[in-house]
Amino acid sequence: MEFKEKLSTYVAEIEQAFETLLPPESARPVRIHQAMRYSLFAEGKRIRPALVLAACERFDNPRNALPAAVAVECLHTYTLIHDDLPAVDDSPLRRGRPTCHIQFDEATAILAGDALLTYAFQLLSRHYAGSSDKGIELIQVLSEASSSEHLIGGQMEDILGEQRVLEQDELNFIHINKTSALIEASLEMGAIIGGATPEQTSSIISYGRCIGLGFQIVDDILDATSDTQTLGKSVGADEASNKSTYVALHGLEKSRQYATELATKAYQICDGLDMPFLKDLAIYLNRRTN
Amino acid sequence: MEFKEKLSTYVAEIEQAFETLLPPESARPVRIHQAMRYSLFAEGKRIRPALVLAACERFDNPRNALPAAVAVECLHTYTLIHDDLPAVDDSPLRRGRPTCHIQFDEATAILAGDALLTYAFQLLSRHYAGSSDKGIELIQVLSEASSSEHLIGGQMEDILGEQRVLEQDELNFIHINKTSALIEASLEMGAIIGGATPEQTSSIISYGRCIGLGFQIVDDILDATSDTQTLGKSVGADEASNKSTYVALHGLEKSRQYATELATKAYQICDGLDMPFLKDLAIYLNRRTN
Hints:
- The structure is a homodimer.
- The first copy, chain A, has helices at about 5-20, 30-40, 45-55, 65-85, 100-105, 105-125, 130-145, 150-160, 170-195, 200-225, 230, 235-240, 245-275, 275-285; strands at about 95, 95-100.
- With about 290 residues, chain A is an all-alpha fold.
- The first copy, chain A, is built from 14 helices and two strands.
- The interface between A and B is large, with 54 and 54 residues.
């Protein structure tokens, strides 16, 4: 199957699983479930859940990884809802639609984010209870990656670093934790479900670090060069807030060069793993326009 | 050991466990860990974590339940931080100190809440990995109780119900989910760690429902009758916002009577369970002044 067709298949399966695995909109209280679904169903690239499925497929049927894939997207979506809040990034637009606090209200958005975060762990503990050793490991990996020392820590330093010029190592801390940690965790979770060896899992995580860092650099490039319609969210916000980005620190050309180096390294790791989908994905993510 | 001495022993062990089980304040980024600790260490009654230890002790060494007790208090503290935010209850004072968003700022408070919620699942998945069947069950119980259909759902309906008079069943939904669900879960988690039989666990949960509902009714009574200094948080807020409470719906006398009925029922359940600490606790909670 061609790469793009494969990606579409994954995305279709993931979005179908949202429907069956999330509480129905009719569940009491309706408003919280509407808000959770509003943000989760908004059109997204679904890269993280696709990584869960792809990392599993090399070793096992990716269907077994669907609840974990949905859990990861719930987790990712909660971070978007809370990052967009007026007290944080104050973003009106996300995934081409009004952000959760604009569509509903701030209190509902705070609770919907909390609920999606909680639901990630509900899903994992329910669906992998039958093989509880794996289940616990999945919960360890996801909770660690999204903790105060990783994902949330990256977001905290990102906020603290606004309005001043960051050193390269500060920017690295933010990118590795805010963006790459969850991407690496997605791959690791797929590998755990599939039953990869420790060596294979370790290579898959290294691949994740390359595409994770690359992903954030491309985000910075797009914020500096794209337009709101193509991107589905507000652009130019980084420059307007004097935010330190790869582009601000190193310029566009060097940023593009570094992103391509990372994609190439990721590509090479896949050769050793015999994972053609992930290989193509590294290139695809490097060339993306939104 | 006398009841109050026993409770103090539990509280001391729990607060010592915060110190050893939470990430140090020096962990990067310092600010998020300061905020997490600021809210967690603020003087609290520690009822929920004490319930975890007490429900375990009847069957096993309560020390084994300490990580779960800390996880429950992290979960509870996150709900306080997010409930106090300007967009939700807009409370300046909690546990006798400025609320997290006043002491730090709103963005930090949102993230600190997220981080404590996440940390609850980190703790459970790390510390009960050795008996992963129990670990998964603990995570199921805690994530279900704190989900959009229970704890968060109760908070959502509480917000939606402001400024109008609620029916008795709406108020029950709020109390059962916003307050009682986590109290019941704390007891169930202790029972699981201790290895209680399904019948014992079921009785312990029924006890939890009685003290959980009673707890919220006493909260309503205190909000209507106490003062800020005694309570350590703002009082009279319910009446000022025309909030529906047991007191508003049924008056003080009937509310006190119902709370006492619930405490008596809880007391009786404990006879069958041979759990004297929980028995005394039901009376203590009914008579509390803060």
